[in-house]
């Protein structure tokens, strides 16, 4: 919004000194981070207090680690309802609103957030960890993905080629089936982040590193000279997703202030499903879909541990891990919660660095 006020032909263009800085994505991104952080940071205290008064707490799995039954019972959930406004307000203030990807990013975030909110509400109302039935969550995610990616594909903003990291001029042309591929990325990533959200601060750390990485990718993808130099596809206007991606980092930092061990609030499915969906949107919009497998390696590992555990038990009657997702396996092995969290963060940062290196190694 501020861009359209202070940059030609905005009504306030040239009326105040120094407003030319609103032209620059880097300036607006920096302030988007600050805005999102402050909004989420100040929303959480009254939210946590209200949730405690209403006794709306996280439902702890009865088959989970015993420490969770002792230490996490009574902790408020649905913290995502404070993260999402931070991202939305910062994006609407600091991003250009004439770029379709900006609105699609907000649509995916809020749409997946609505699914998660309903899931969380059913859990707390029924005092059960089951929540919304899995098939309904998947169907809703398919509908959101179909609407958003169908629109972007029809307008030529995405697809049909899938580029391969580390390799120059190597891609797979999927034609119209690219939309199906993009929907799969959204559903898979959204649920993978949801599976990762099991320890204090575990999910938000990798979410922030992934989002920051895709903020950089969006910036160079939307810059003609940088994209030409790096040999990556140029997508006009997608650089504005840098503002959105880093706003997510800012809101994540505001949340982490209260979610750091021992957590005062959990993000809930309203947070995890929405944040996973936005990462998928960033990956698809920047034409770096497969890079998400690498940069979001923590989420892939968590999801695959569940798939392998279920598959092994059904086929052989034996479990591969002490418990799935894999962060619970390490808890069962005696690792302390902070140790698991920090080590997963370290791995996430390393994967992000490797992911960024693919922009040059082609």
Give a topology summary.
Blueprint (H helix, E strand, L loop, with lengths): L1 H5 L18 H30 L11 H6 L8 H15 L5 H27 L7 H21 L6 E3 L7 E3 L4 H19 L7 H18 L2 H7 L10 H19 L8 H18 L5 H5 L1 H20 L9 H7 L4 H21 L5
Antiparallel strand pairs: 1-2
Helix pairs in contact: 2-4, 2-10, 4-5, 4-10, 4-11, 5-6, 5-11, 6-7, 7-11, 7-13, 8-10, 8-11, 8-15
Task: Describe the model.
With 362 residues, this protein is mainly alpha-helical. The protein has one domain (2-357). Helices cover 66% and strands 2% of the residues. It contains 15 helices and 2 strands. It has helices at residues 2-6, 25-54, 66-71, 80-94, 100-126, 134-154, 178-196, 204-221, 224-230, 241-259, 268-285, 291-295, 297-316, 326-332, 337-357, and strands at 161-163, 171-173. The protein has a two-stranded antiparallel ribbon with strand order 1-2. β1 and β2 (171-173) form a beta hairpin. The mean pLDDT is 92.
Descriptors:
mainly alpha, two-stranded antiparallel ribbon, globular, 362 residues
Basic shape: globular
Number of domains: 1
Largest pleated sheet: 2 strands, antiparallel
Helix content: 55-70%
Supply the helix-strand structural class: mainly alpha
Radius of gyration: 20 Å
| Termini gap | 37 Å
Rounded average pLDDT: 92
Strand line-up in the sheet with most strands:
1-2
β-strand amount: under 5%
**Secondary-structure element order, as H and E?**
HHHHHHEEHHHHHHHHH
Short summary:
The chain is mainly α. It has one domain (2-357).
